[in-house]
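The material for today's practical consists of a large collection of protein records. Backbone structure tokens are a discrete shorthand for how the chain folds in space. An example says more than a description, so a record of this kind follows:
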Amino acid sequence: MRASRSIATAALGFLSLSAIYGGGTLIAEAQGNPWGFLPQSLLRHSPFHSYLIPGIVLLLANGLLPLYVLWILLKQGPNGGIWTAFQGSLLLGWLMVQCLMLRILIWPHYLYGANAVVLIVCGALLWRDANHLPSRT
């Protein structure tokens, strides 16, 4: 359980920090070309005309919410596992929708997809341990 908590803490911290930075950049440069490689034309197959709404959603759903989940995990709240798995599922859903809307798949999708799977697995293990369920090993 200790390893699952440590791994989930690192994964949540990485997700939160990078999404706060990414969401903030998308909001600040909503009409421009964030980081020099996200032209507005990338949004042509999406319902968005700028990066403002995606930036806000990224900031809230994958930046600030994981901070809350991290806080629950650090204070060892009884629902830390559920929240961790939920955050992983939310991230995986975000990635799938993003890939469908933008019609691209690039290396960060694999990195954050792996992070999502780690959060889901760690969350399930933490939930199992918190509810004193036997492992299947």
